[in-house]
Amino acid sequence: MNEIATCMHGFAPVDRSGLALHDAPAETWAGVFAEAAGLGFSAIEIADSHIRPGHLDVRRLTELTGAAASAGVRPVAVHVQRKSIIDPCLGEDNLAYAHATIDAAAALGCTVFSTGLHQPFSEEQKRALWFWTTPGWTDPDDPEVRELAVTRFRELGEHAASVGLRMSLEMYEDTYLGTADSAVALVEQIGLDNVGLNPDIGNLIRLHRPIEDWREMYEKTLPYANYWHMKNYQRDEAGDGSWFTSHPSTLELGLIDYRAVVKRSVELGYTGPYLMEQYGGDSLGVCAMNMRYLEGLLGRTPVSSESGAR
Given CA atoms 168, 174, 175, 181 in this order, what sign does their dihedral have? Predict the structure, then answer.
């Protein structure tokens, strides 16, 4: 059965005292997992924006595993973000970090190592209300750099396979994973059975510019999907292309028809985890709403937020 997990956006990466969640005691981690469990989640993605398993020693990894187990929540994936392996300055360091994270993900009992090619926020993106409204990094139109991405991802994919993990590449604008055709071609060039796509089309429909049709993007990418960040946005745009707007939504009420695409994913035999993701407001609460909606689409009994951990 496909697991339904929550992201960590609903938890502060740094507390009021300035202590990073990464450096917090195991009791704090246990509280995070218990809050997720209280809303019905039995699985969670460890995002390195919050906790960096690749930088934890054996003792701390054991504490992290124990904190999750105490709440009945399983770390299903570790997600490395904004540490591109083809960064012109930090690519080799980021590659080494990704290798360390793969080993840590395996030690945690995860099934997926998730990453991509997105870069750190620009100063303009940091100042914006919604970071996607301001242009960020663009991967160069350079065959040698693209081939470097293929080579390094293949190296990581082979490592992931050796420790029993899938590797999933997240779609993200203006990278080699920024369009359906480019993302599919990249996975095919890598050519490993355990390497697939995270078809996070939500990253693309929120952009304030012309976009590919979401139906066509899913039709092309779902056959390659092995992990799935799910989120949705309300979107509006002028017919003449003079303006665009978007803002976060629930899965049910946004532009993407998840009833249709989940049905299509089942037809295609998708077997990976589903990851509930949300920006803004009560992120964790919306993720719980989306979990119950998805459970209904999958024919499972929706989990009540009052039911506690499963």
Answer: positive
Whether the Cβ atoms of residue 227 and residue 254 lie closer than 8 Å to each other: no
Low-confidence spans in the chain with pLDDT less than 70: 301-310
Tell me phi and psi for residue 44, to 5 degrees. Answer: -145, 150
Tens-place pLDDT, residues 147-181: 999 999 999 999 999 999 999 999 999 999 999 99
Going by C-alpha positions, the residue among 151, 132, 289 that lies closest to residue 206 is 132
| 294: helix, strand or coil | helix
Residue type, 50: H
Residue 186 in tokens: 């990249």
In a 13 Å sphere around the CA of 37, the CA atoms on its Cβ side amount to: 18
Quick one: 4-297 is in which CATH superfamily? Answer: Divalent-metal-dependent TIM barrel enzymes (3.20.20.150)
Q: Are 34 and 62 in contact (CB under 8 A)?
A: no
- Alpha-carbon dihedral sign for residues 179, 185, 186, 188: positive
Could you read off the pLDDT of 221-254 as tens digits, one per residue?
999 999 999 999 999 999 999 999 999 999 999 9
57-69 burial, b for 16+ CB within 10 Å, e for fewer? eeebbebbbebbe
Cα angle 7-11-16, degrees, rounded to a multiple of 5: 160
Total length of the chain:
310
Model pLDDT, residue 1: 78
Residue 309 is predicted with a pLDDT of: 37
Distance between CA atoms of residues 112 and 168, nearest Å: 7
Q: At what angle do helices 58-71 and 26-38 cross, to 10 degrees?
A: 30
Q: What is the pLDDT of residue 130?
A: 95
Q: Which two tokens stand for residue 172?
A: 């993200």
Running DSSP on this structure, what letter comes out for residue 16? Answer: T
Domain boundaries, the chain: 4-297
